[in-house]
From TrEMBL:
Organism: Rubripirellula amarantea
GO biological process per UniProt: RNA methylation
Protein name per UniProt: Ribosomal RNA small subunit methyltransferase F
Domain SAM-dependent MTase RsmB/NOP-type: 32-307
Domain of life: Bacteria
């Protein structure tokens, strides 16, 4: 929001929107901060340094430039070097960190994504695209939990798939259903449901992604009605005592604390206080960040526990939407052995959906098959030829599948991430030729196909970087 736009925002309207919540420092300071741009911060990958033997590095030393901690999220870092360009680094290409607004980390802190409370849990991100929160949840569930990332809008699935793949994990599935339909299809099966709810988006005004109409009561009322429906669906998806994490990027009381009060009054949920977030508490189980106090666009998050008995899924003749997936035949599995360790493939649920092949963990909840439209992709078909998917190259730790790798130098890695061929690749690998994962300092970047001299670049256009890349 520019200064010109901020001058149009009526202070009385802001106070009406915020309701009974006290604005620290006053409304004038808030309006001034809403006219300023707030830069993205780093959310460090919680497992990347463990997977590559660098776990002893302090958090601050894991970033290739100077930083300082984010107070409310232990895996968050704010860049202090004015000349730093985080998105231009090979560390970013290698998945060491994600770039998000500092305010979006509030919900992750409420969920416990920087701790161990989600390990082994079955969780759902109900409005998951573009995947900033979903990818943090996926990292947090570890090697025995599972994430269902639901995004009702199909056109938003591509960035969600990409950001989940960047985690290196295969412990997820993607669905694309209206929350009501998903709740009826599955019932109360989740330990935790997180909602980044569609809202009036008042905090986005500073980024120029929302106009002053976000402050109108008409927009707030419309958003609140939609949130009521989504919250009801979320409650139906939770097990008894399961955790609900609700977040918005708006300041409106009707879309924030009022939503939680509605659940309390109906006896559906109770506040679940997060001790580490006490300095940000606005009500029982509710927390706020302000643009003029916390150097971010602003955010709201709440943590509650379900008081309801779990709802059973409604039975249908087909047990849900009929799956279009087919199991792989022995010949196709054998073909995968050219790129992947056959012993690892044998332990996965490999299935084909059209021209795409997915490989889910063998212990994936059986009901995921009723709703999944995508998941951990390992191969795709052009004509009659199967090729390894970019997502499969990014798998790390226990999810790693690829047999061959090429350890790139800094110069080679810089060339690779900008879409160029890798010269002198024979010096980087013990394999004579064929498909291999290009790696830089152990981090997977994507596939190359070597003829023994040059590695042909198979990095998708969406994953390539333009301009200067910093090693």
């Amino acid at each position: 929001m520019s200064d010109a736009t901020s001058s149009k925002v009526d202070r009385k309207t802001i106070l009406q929107s915020v309701g009974g919540v006290s604005i620290p420092g006053g409304v004038e300071a808030m309006v001034d901060a809403m006219s300023q741009r707030h830069f993205s911060v780093l959310r460090m990958h919680r497992n990347r340094f463990r997977d590559h033997g660098d776990e002893t590095l302090s958090l601050a030393n894991r970033a290739p430039f100077s930083t300082k901690p984010i107070d409310w999220y232990s895996l968050g870092l704010r860049v202090t070097d004015a000349d730093a360009r985080p998105s231009r680094h090979l560390a970013y290409a290698g998945g060491d960190y994600y770039l998000q607004d500092a305010g979006s980390l509030l919900a992750l802190a409420a969920a416990g994504c920087d701790g161990d409370s989600l390990k082994g849990k079955i969780v759902c991100d109900l409005c998951a695209a573009p995947g900033g929160k979903a990818s943090a949840m996926l990292e947090a569930v570890g090697e025995t939990g599972f994430l269902l990332a639901n995004e009702p809008i199909r056109s938003r699935l591509a960035p969600l798939k990409y950001n989940l793949a960047r985690t290196g994990s295969d412990r997820y599935a993607i669905s694309s259903l209206d929350p009501d339909v998903l709740a009826k299809r599955l019932g109360g099966v989740f330990d935790c449901v997180i909602i980044d709810a569609p809202c009036s988006g008042q905090a986005l005004m500073s980024k120029g992604r929302q106009s002053e109409s976000a402050m109108s009561m008409k927009q707030i009322t419309h958003s609140a009605a939609r949130q009521n429906r989504i919250l009801d669906a979320a409650m139906a998806l939770l097990r008894h005592d399961g955790r609900l994490i609700y977040s918005t990027c708006t300041f409106a009381h009707a879309e924030n604390e009022s939503q939680m009060q509605r659940l309390i009054e109906r006896g559906d949920a109770r506040p679940d206080q997060v001790a580490s977030l006490t300095p940000y508490q606005s009500d029982d189980g509710c927390y706020r960040l302000w643009p003029h106090v916390h150097q971010c666009a602003g955010a709201f998050a709440a943590a509650f526990r379900s008081c309801l008995d779990p709802i059973k899924a409604k039975a249908t003749k087909s047990g849900g939407k009929k799956s279009q997936r087919n199991k792989c035949d022995a010949k196709t599995i054998e073909e995968l052995g050219r790129w992947f360790d056959p012993s690892l493939i044998d332990g996965l649920n490999v299935a084909i959906d059209g021209a795409v092949m997915f490989a889910y963990p063998s212990d994936m909840p059986i009901w995921m098959g009723r709703v999944a439209v995508a998941g951990p992709e390992i191969a795709y078909r052009t004509g009659k030829t199967w090729k390894p998917s970019h997502e499969a190259a990014l798998r790390t730790g226990p999810s790693r599948l690829a047999i061959e790798s090429a350890a790139l130098s800094c110069d080679q890695a810089q060339a690779f991430v900008t879409g160029n061929a890798v010269n002198s690749i024979a010096q980087s690998t013990t394999a004579a030729q064929g498909w291999m994962v290009a790696r830089y300092q152990g981090r997977p970047l994507g596939w190359v196909k070597s003829d023994g001299r040059i590695g042909k670049n198979h990095l998708p256009m969406s994953a390539r970087m333009s301009g200067e890349v910093i090693g």
